[in-house]
């Protein structure tokens, strides 16, 4: 007798994803649906023969260790620290000449797309790792499909609700974090599930909203096979820095450094700052890589 999971797996078709199927998936996954009038594109080539599941997405396997197992392993543990850095957070890597640019596509109220930044990266052929929040992925369906199909970019997990990762509700910048191992698991797994089911991606890295977390949550992320990636250089200060400052920040990179910047706030200084910095970094002998190239 087939398993419950086998019964609810997507059936193969040759049709494009329609607005109705995207809307159904968004509602089942608990995220904001695309706004009326926003175009919905086909998924990348690898998924163009697969329709969305007709059953709720929470019944589809995440491909991760189970929630119950994570609770059994870490439940009841009191955090020893909470912040941007600590054991279990990857903020740099051994190298003599490589650096990594990462850009966050955040959740919340700014589900926009910095098309100028993506054009800059493509023009310079500058590889980057993109940390994508679940709500942003759904709201920017066409763009997301194009980014997934572009080998210049690696897609990583930026969470479900875009909140700090915590097991006791600690907050950063006034944003309350997840309040239990279960909630921390869901913050990682719900976004992972959407990326896996709709785009065939098994993201290898996770970055929480605000980039803050505690040590128990960091261990949880490692247990799930998606270690937390922090940063060496804050490139655009939450997409608030002018272009000249973004360039100056990026030029502080040393080999093994990881930049954090943003791709969900067009109109700021990020795109122009990166445009000016990339040739100068290369002139210094630094090679731009994705996280999966160096870790």
Short description:
The protein has helices spanning 4-8, 19-29, 67-74, 115-124, 134-139, 141-149, 181-199, 215-223, 243-250, 270-283, 291-294, and strands at 82-83, 89-90, 98-105, 128-132, 153-157, 171-172, 175-176, 213-214, 228-229, 233-234, 258-262, 287-289. The protein is α/β, with parallel strands linked by helices and 295 residues long.
- N-to-C order of helices and strands: HHHEEEHEHHEEEHEHEEHEHEH
What's the assembly state of these chains?
single chain
The biggest sheet amounts to: 6 strands, parallel
- Strand percent estimate: 5-15%
Per DSSP E runs of 2 or more residues, the count of β-strands stands at 12
Provide structural commentary.
This protein has helices at residues 4-8, 19-29, 67-74, 115-124, 134-139, 141-149, 181-199, 215-223, 243-250, 270-283, 291-294; strands spanning 82-83, 89-90, 98-105, 128-132, 153-157, 171-172, 175-176, 213-214, 228-229, 233-234, 258-262, 287-289. It has one domain: Alpha-Beta Barrel (TIM Barrel), CATH 3.20.20.370. It is globular, with a radius of gyration of 19 Å. Helix content is 35%, strand content 14%. The strands form four sheets. Strands 3, 4, 5, 10, 11 and 12 form a six-stranded parallel beta sheet that branches. It has a two-stranded antiparallel sheet with strand order 1-8. A two-stranded parallel ribbon has the order 2-9. The longest helix is centred in the middle third of the chain and has 19 residues, at 181-199. It starts with a helix and ends with a helix. The protein contains eleven helices and twelve strands. Helix 9 (243-250) links the parallel strand 10 and strand 11 (258-262). The chain has 295 residues and is α/β, with parallel strands linked by helices. 47% of the residues are buried.
């Amino acid at each position: 007798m087939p398993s419950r999971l086998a019964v609810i797996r997507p059936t193969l078709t040759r049709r494009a994803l329609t607005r109705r199927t995207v809307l159904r998936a968004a509602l089942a996954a608990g995220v904001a649906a695309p706004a009326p009038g926003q175009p919905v594109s086909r998924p990348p080539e690898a998924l163009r023969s697969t329709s969305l599941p007709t059953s709720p997405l929470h019944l589809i396997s995440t491909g991760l260790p189970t929630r119950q197992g994570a609770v059994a392993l870490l439940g009841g543990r009191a955090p020893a620290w909470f912040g941007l850095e600590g054991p279990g957070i990857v903020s740099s890597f051994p190298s003599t000449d490589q650096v990594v640019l990462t850009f966050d596509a955040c959740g919340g109220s700014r589900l926009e797309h910095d098309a100028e930044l993506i054009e800059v990266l493509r023009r310079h052929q500058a590889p980057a790792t993109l940390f994508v929040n679940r709500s942003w992925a759904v709201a920017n369906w066409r763009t997301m499909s194009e980014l997934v199909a572009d080998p210049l970019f690696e897609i990583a997990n930026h969470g479900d609700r875009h909140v700090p990762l915590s097991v006791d509700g600690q907050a950063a910048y006034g944003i309350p974090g997840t309040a239990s191992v279960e909630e921390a698991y869901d913050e990682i797994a719900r976004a992972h599930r959407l990326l896996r089911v709709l785009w065939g991606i098994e993201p290898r890295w996770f970055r929480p909203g605000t980039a803050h977390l505690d040590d128990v949550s960091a261990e949880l992320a490692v247990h799930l096979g998606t270690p937390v990636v922090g940063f060496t250089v804050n490139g655009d200060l939450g997409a608030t820095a002018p272009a000249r400052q973004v360039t100056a920040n990026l030029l502080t990179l040393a080999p093994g450094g990881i930049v954090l910047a943003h791709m969900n706030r067009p109109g700021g200084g990020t795109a122009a700052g990166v445009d000016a910095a990339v040739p100068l970094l290369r002139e210094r002998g630094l090679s731009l890589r994705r996280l999966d190239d160096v870790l």
